[in-house]
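ARCHIVE CARD
CATEGORY: sequence design from structure
SOURCE FIELD: tokenized fold
FIELD CONTENT:
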């Protein structure tokens, strides 16, 4: 089974994009065919080789009279040459920074971050973990070849992508202010589109994960690049194992954020004792964020299963309930598992004293972060 084949649910056409070559080809083709609007919302928009490619396709669209808009986060894009955004503007592209006014006394960026990824070209939309940086560019094109998993959407939910972008665009123009969540709820039979905002009391994407894990009957498969779940989720996964659920968690073996990787590794012994099957992806950085529960629930998007995504970031996830699509995601998970090494208790016990101390220090840091920004336990326990 090809996990990237197009799947028609009767309401939407969905296509998993588990390879950056496939994603970029599809995105550039959609932008090249656009006649009305091209929208890019992304945490990272870089001025590197990937940014050069993006500039080329966006400026070409703008030259055809297409309205092209780019919304970026100033923290995620802090290393981008400011001249890059001016070049986009000179080429006819509208550009805004999300949250630029939210600065602390020392000039540091404060407030919510826009960690979302939305790409739209007329009737085609995309989301997932990938961003506009050469980390994601294939190696043969001069990039670092990170592995990510995204999805292409066609059908009525594309309108929701567009409405969300317009909402975030106005929020960026009207800050400071509180962002609003966006949730299609039960509008569509096959999927739910959710754009979350920072909240310890109502984290829609986190709560959707938690609810699915609590009723899982056969499997919970998670692939997540920055995995340090709040205690209520760890408990939900532990209870699932007790019910006989197959809980597998695929984590990065190499990470660009070593502090959260070390915190996770500090918990490996406990998680293994809970019955979680742990794996680490090898060969390149794994940046994917998706999950599968049983045969009728899956999600792909930008949500990192950790307290920062709950309490500090705008996120976008799509929850898909179509069995064929869930099967495609399961196939992709198995393909990625074939590129991973299983973590055993022997691996945990073999860590040096220095590694254990560093892991425990990171764990304490992330426990503090969870206490400040994670979901409130009285609501979710």
């Amino acid at each position: 089974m090809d996990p990237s084949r197009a799947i028609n649910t009767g309401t939407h056409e969905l296509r998993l994009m588990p390879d950056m070559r496939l994603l970029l080809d599809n995105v550039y083709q959609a932008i090249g065919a656009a006649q009305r609007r091209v929208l890019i919302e992304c945490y990272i928009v870089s001025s590197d080789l990937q940014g050069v490619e993006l500039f080329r396709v966006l400026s070409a669209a703008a030259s055809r009279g297409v309205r092209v808009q780019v919304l970026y986060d100033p923290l995620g894009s802090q290393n981008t040459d400011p001249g890059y955004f001016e070049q986009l503007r000179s080429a006819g592209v509208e550009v805004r920074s999300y949250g630029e006014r939210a600065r602390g006394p020392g000039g540091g960026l404060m407030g919510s971050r826009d960690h979302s990824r939305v790409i739209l070209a007329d009737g085609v939309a995309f989301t997932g973990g990938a961003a506009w940086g050469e980390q994601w560019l294939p190696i043969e094109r001069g990039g670092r070849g990170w592995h990510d998993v995204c999805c292409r959407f066609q059908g009525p939910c594309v309108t929701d992508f567009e409405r969300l972008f317009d909402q975030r665009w106005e929020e960026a123009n009207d800050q400071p202010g509180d962002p609003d969540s966006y949730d299609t709820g039960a509008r569509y039979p096959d999927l739910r589109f959710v754009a979350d905002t920072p909240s310890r009391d109502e984290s829609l994407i986190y709560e959707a994960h938690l609810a699915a894990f609590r009723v899982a009957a056969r499997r919970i498969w998670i692939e997540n690049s920055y995995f340090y779940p709040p205690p209520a989720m760890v408990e939900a996964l532990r209870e699932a194992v007790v019910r006989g659920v197959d809980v597998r968690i695929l984590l990065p073996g190499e990470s660009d954020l070593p502090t959260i990787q070390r915190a996770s590794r500090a918990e490996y012994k406990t998680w293994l004792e809970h019955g979680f099957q742990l794996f680490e992806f090898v060969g390149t950085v794994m940046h994917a964020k998706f999950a599968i529960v049983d045969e009728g629930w899956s999600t792909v998007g930008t949500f990192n299963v950790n307290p920062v995504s709950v309490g500090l970031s705008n996120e976008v996830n799509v929850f898909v309930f179509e069995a064929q699509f869930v099967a495609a995601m399961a196939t992709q998970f198995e393909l990625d598992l074939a590129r991973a090494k299983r973590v055993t208790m022997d691996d945990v016990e073999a860590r040096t004293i220095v590694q254990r101390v560093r892991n425990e220090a990171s764990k304490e840091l992330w426990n503090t972060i969870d206490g400040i920004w994670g979901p409130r336990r009285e609501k979710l326990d």
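CARD ANNOTATION: The CA atoms of residues 172 and 235 lie 37 Å apart. The first helix runs from residue 20 to 33.
SHELF: design records, drawer C
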